[in-house]
Structure to design on (184 residues):
């Protein structure tokens, strides 16, 4: 009886050792999995060099470089203000990918753009915007593009004025999303 007890004890002890090794292996693989998941979900810096832009810019998580604001700001401002009666609708349509998907905000922006398009078509206005600088506010919710806006109707110069376009924005998944536009 004593020998059977010790043989069972030895058998259970060896099973326990095997289970300890298996538990360590599973724990180790869990730690490795967690490290891999953490490294995949961390913010990474991406260098973007799109074919339509002049400079590279950087996006790290939800932080974007000044060059991103500059390039997108110049592009959107040009599409908004460098228009003629023939291209005004196509210009306005080309900025839609930069706008928020919030239906109320899009509706307000579209109504404003439609009003501007009507004025341009009815008055046969040709205008060109020459951007000079981009400014981003300190809290990162607005940026503005400042430049010169020249307006003409036919062969007559209507005005030349310093113009600022203020954009409210958010950054979501590394993308600049414009939530409102104000021309001053």
């Amino acid at each position: 009886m004593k020998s059977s007890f010790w043989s069972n004890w030895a058998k259970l002890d060896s099973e326990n050792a095997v289970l300890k090794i298996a538990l360590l292996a599973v724990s180790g693989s869990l730690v490795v999995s967690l490290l891999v998941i953490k490294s995949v979900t961390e913010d990474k810096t991406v260098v973007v060099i799109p074919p339509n832009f002049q400079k590279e810019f950087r996006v790290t998580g939800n932080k974007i470089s000044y060059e991103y604001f500059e390039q997108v700001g110049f592009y959107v401002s040009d599409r908004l203000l460098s228009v003629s009666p023939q291209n005004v609708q196509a210009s306005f349509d080309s900025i839609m990918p930069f706008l928020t998907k919030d239906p109320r905000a899009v509706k307000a922006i579209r109504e404003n753009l439609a009003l501007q398009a009507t004025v341009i078509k009815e008055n046969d206005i040709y205008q060109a915007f020459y951007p000079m600088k981009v400014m981003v506010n300190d809290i990162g919710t607005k940026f503005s593009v400042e430049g010169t806006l020249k307006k003409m109707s036919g062969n007559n110069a209507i005005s030349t004025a310093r113009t600022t376009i203020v954009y409210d924005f958010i950054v979501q998944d590394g993308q600049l999303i414009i939530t409102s536009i104000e021309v001053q």
Q: What stands out?
A: The beta strands are 45-48, 57-60, 63-64, 125-136, 142-153, 156-172, 175-183.
